[in-house]
């Protein structure tokens, strides 16, 4: 299978089997299908935007009239779909299903790649926060029965048009690409789906009453021969209709094609093929979306005359003047003080509410929540929005100017803003990164870049002061500024050891985090008063002993890792002349720059210098530092985390490339969303006032993981069968408890051939006759080969059963840095 990776709209997509024929009668390939959907996207997307898509897929092609292919309906988005595909859940009797929303070109291409030839959507849309709205269009499906065709459907369409125009609706026709014609009429969104269905039903009955010889409105198929059935039921909120411009899964690649009324008068009217649709100009169905302009949400929240804000006549944006695009930051004293950042783009001001304002330093990020697009006339708006109106409160211009754009994607914006000469912003390069949701109410991080567009360091900027709240935005209250003096030890701090004293094993025991959910972590951060969130890096803990020239490394259980990672320990790292003990994570990065625990496995178990040197070139590691325990012989563990962090940043200010001090985030939900978006393991939420408690698992550090992982002790082997005959079929694992090694189930997936070979070599010397577990079922023990429970591994799993068994456990790797006595159940 030939595959290729392409970048579309800033998204990476893997395309395969492009030469596979999906329409045998015309020889149309998957590549041509993807090309069609790519080129028709500007016309198709407005008609499906914000609507859940039900797909009809033909992975093996549509076949021929004599031997049709077998399609299947896909409602829920498949598990392997890209994470960036927008989706919302819809409840079903069997539970909620996540439906995709085809809102952009990358999503449309992805759907085509998985052979979603037909796209079906309802007549309603989701709101930005996932609520089902009233329908914004009415549809009539004119379906010809045996003995009639498009000509008769066109006649019925004209009758329906006359009646709809009498009640203020102006319908537009679409030849369905299958048999009949669809008529669409715009609705103002005030009627429910039930009300729209009732209107359509009455309309169908009225036409049937006037033309009983050609029209039928009953569902019964026996009444349809020689007549056109007006299907009004597709206005039901649970029903869908083939989307305008969608392909059809017929023997030839026809399209549900919008047409003009003049075309319906043509006695030779027929369905259009995809190449014929591509050759046509414009979109006859465009008036259907006349309220779908970018300012629709803005206008829906405001009434001219009741607010001093500008209220345009139409939802369309304005033409931008020549020159650099403009921006404004407005200080908004609404129910909660915040700052509104607005960037001119595509004829509107794309807007974010920033509770803490533009971050004054690169060390802290600000949460930004996208709001509705605003008109360009909002650039200089200042005034008081009356009580009772949307956004009530006083708004002033904090700074305004122009910006130079580097990148604008639906999930990332990078620009250099230049404010007024005497304004507080100055010139600053900023990045906005979407972390959760899409469109209005989506969450973003606003980040002050460390360098300008030319790579020169950026200085700190103005701190936004919330005078009426008495707080400083953009920096946590306990975060020390960059020019603050180094903290001194607290009065009751242990005096530490002389600089030349070797730290003991007890000195090197790392502080551990307690497992928690995002909700628990959010509540704890609220209690602490200043959220402090770090990314959880998917590696192994490394406590570093710096002697002023070289680093030595210890694992969390005291094992010496110095020889294992020479790129960290055999080179000058630039951590300064003072001795220090630092805490961090050893990580290996994949091709996309993400920490990869499976990749690190290639390094963790090597012992021979030649092997280590060889693999270090292929799989280099980095040391991500997040804490410091002592400096120049002075124990700083009793200082608050915020002060230790300042010491760490000074220590690593001139460190070499293998050493990284990752940023700290000040919003739990945004950080959790960001870590998930970038495929990271999770986050650690910490109390900024916490001391470093060696060897203690503390609730002042809370770890929140996206997928559940569990350290386990290997105690047995189930022999492999079939293609695994002669090797390991699955491992029997357990978790220590008060009663002994409690059996936790089998792990049989996630192994590669090299992993199985290495495990076989490691476990064979540990073979014995004694069952090390408590509670192994007879079925699992029947052919088990027992091993001494010395090795610790890590697995990923869905949940624990009430009996303590891991469901859907999948192998992640060995943990030579852990001993069986350290393993605890991660509830």
Strand content: 25-35%
For the record, what CATH class of the largest domain applies?
A: Alpha Beta
Number of extended strands: 48
- Low-confidence blocks of residues: 465-499
Could you describe the 3D structure shown?
α1 crosses α2. The chain is α+β, with helices and mostly antiparallel strands. The strands form 12 sheets. It has an 8-stranded antiparallel beta barrel with strand order 19-20-21-22-27-26-25-24. The protein folds into 5 domains: 3-121, DNA primase, PRIM domain; 137-239 and 256-289, Alpha-Beta Plaits, CATH 3.30.70.3300; 300-315 and 322-472, no CATH class; 506-705, D-amino Acid Aminotransferase, Chain A, domain 1 (2-Layer Sandwich); 708-822, Beta Barrel (OB fold (Dihydrolipoamide Acetyltransferase, E2P)), CATH 2.40.50. The chain contains 15 helices and 48 strands. The protein is 18% helix and 31% strand. Residues 301-320, 472-505 are annotated as: Disordered. Residues 476-492 have a biased composition (Low complexity). One of its GO terms (molecular function) is ATP binding.
């Amino acid at each position: 299978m030939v595959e290729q990776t392409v970048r579309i709209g800033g998204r990476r997509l893997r395309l395969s089997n492009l030469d596979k024929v999906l329409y045998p009668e015309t020889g149309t390939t998957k590549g041509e299908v993807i090309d069609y959907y790519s080129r028709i996207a500007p016309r198709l997307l407005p008609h499906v935007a914000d609507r859940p898509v039900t797909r009809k897929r033909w992975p093996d092609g549509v076949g021929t009239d004599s031997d049709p292919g077998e399609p299947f309906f896909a409602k829920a988005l498949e598990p392997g779909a890209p994470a960036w595909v927008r989706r919302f859940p819809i409840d079903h009797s069997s539970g909620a299903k996540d439906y995709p929303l085809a809102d952009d070109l990358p999503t449309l291409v992805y759907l085509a790649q998985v052979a979603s030839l037909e796209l079906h959507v309802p007549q309603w849309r989701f709101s930005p926060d996932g609520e089902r709205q009233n329908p914004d269009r009415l549809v009539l499906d004119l379906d010809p029965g045996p003995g009639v065709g498009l000509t008769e459907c066109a006649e019925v369409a004209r009758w329906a048009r006359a009646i709809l125009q009498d009640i203020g609706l102006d319908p537009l026709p679409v030849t369905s690409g299958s048999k009949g014609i669809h008529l669409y009429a715009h609705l103002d969104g005030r009627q429910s789906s039930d009300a729209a269905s009732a209107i359509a039903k009455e309309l169908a009955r009225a036409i049937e009453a006037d033309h009983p010889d050609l029209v039928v409105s009953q569902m019964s198929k026996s009444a349809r021969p020689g007549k056109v059935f007006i299907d009004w039921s597709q206005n039901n909120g649970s029903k869908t209709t083939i989307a305008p411009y969608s392909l059809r899964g017929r023997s030839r690649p026809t399209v549900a094609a919008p047409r003009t009324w003049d075309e319906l008068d043509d006695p030779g009217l027929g369905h259009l093929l995809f190449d014929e649709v591509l050759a046509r100009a414009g979109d006859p169905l465009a008036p259907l979306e006349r309220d779908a302009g970018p300012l629709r949400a803005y206008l829906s929240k405001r009434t001219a005359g009741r607010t001093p804000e500008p209220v345009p006549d139409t939802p369309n944006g304005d033409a931008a003047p020549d020159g650099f695009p403009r921006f404004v930051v407005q200080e908004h004293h609404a129910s909660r003080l915040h700052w509104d950042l607005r960037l001119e783009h595509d004829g509107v001001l794309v807007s974010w509410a920033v509770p803490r304002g533009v971050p004054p330093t690169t060390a802290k990020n600000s949460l930004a929540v996208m709001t509705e697009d605003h008109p360009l006339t909002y650039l200089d708006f200042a005034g008081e929005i009356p009580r009772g109106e949307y956004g009530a409160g006083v708004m002033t211009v904090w700074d305004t100017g122009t910006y130079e754009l580097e990148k604008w994607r639906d999930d990332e914006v990078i620009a250099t803003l230049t404010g007024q000469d005497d304004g507080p912003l100055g010139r600053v390069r900023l990045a906005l990164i979407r972390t959760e949701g899409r469109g209005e109410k989506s969450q973003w991080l606003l980040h002050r870049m460390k360098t300008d567009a030319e790579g020169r360091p950026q200085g700190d900027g103005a701190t936004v002061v919330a005078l009426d709240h008495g707080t400083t935005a953009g920096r946590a209250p306990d975060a020390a500024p960059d020019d603050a003096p180094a903290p001194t030890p607290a009065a009751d701090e242990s005096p530490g050891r002389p600089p030349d004293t070797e730290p003991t094993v007890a000195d090197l025991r790392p502080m551990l985090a307690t497992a928690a959910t995002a909700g628990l972590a959010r509540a704890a951060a609220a209690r602490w008063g200043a959220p402090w969130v770090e990314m959880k890096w998917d590696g192994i803990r490394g406590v570093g002993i710096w002697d002023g020239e070289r680093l030595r490394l210890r694992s969390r259980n005291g094992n010496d890792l110095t020889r294992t990672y020479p790129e960290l320990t055999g080179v000058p790292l630039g951590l300064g002349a003072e001795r220090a003990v630092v805490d961090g994570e050893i990580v290996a990065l994949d091709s996309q720059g993400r920490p990869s625990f499976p990749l690190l496995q290639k390094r963790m178990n090597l012992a021979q210098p030649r092997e280590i040197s060889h693999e270090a070139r292929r799989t280099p590691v980095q040391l991500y530092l997040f804490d410091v325990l002592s400096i120049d012989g002075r124990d700083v563990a009793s200082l608050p985390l915020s002060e230790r962090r300042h010491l760490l940043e000074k220590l690593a200010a001139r460190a070499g490339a293998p050493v990284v001090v990752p940023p700290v985030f000040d919003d739990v939900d945004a950080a959790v969303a960001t870590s998930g978006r970038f495929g990271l393991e999770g986050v650690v939420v910490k109390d900024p006032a916490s001391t470093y408690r060696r060897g203690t698992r503390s609730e002042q550090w809370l770890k929140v993981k996206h997928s559940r992982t569990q350290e386990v002790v290997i105690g047995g082997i189930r022999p492999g069968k079939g293609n695994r005959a002669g090797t390991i079929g699955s491992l029997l694992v357990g978790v220590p408890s008060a009663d002994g090694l409690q059996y936790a189930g089998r792990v049989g997936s996630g192994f590669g051939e090299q992993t199985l070979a290495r495990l076989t070599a490691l476990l064979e010397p540990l073979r014995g006759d004694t069952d090390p577990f408590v509670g192994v079922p007879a079925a699992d023990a029947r052919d088990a080969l027992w091993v001494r429970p010395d090795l610790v591994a890590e697995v990923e799993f869905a949940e624990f059963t009430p009996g303590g068994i891991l469901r859907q456990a999948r192998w992640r790797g060995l943990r030579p840095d852990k001993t069986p006595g350290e393993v605890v159940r991660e509830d």
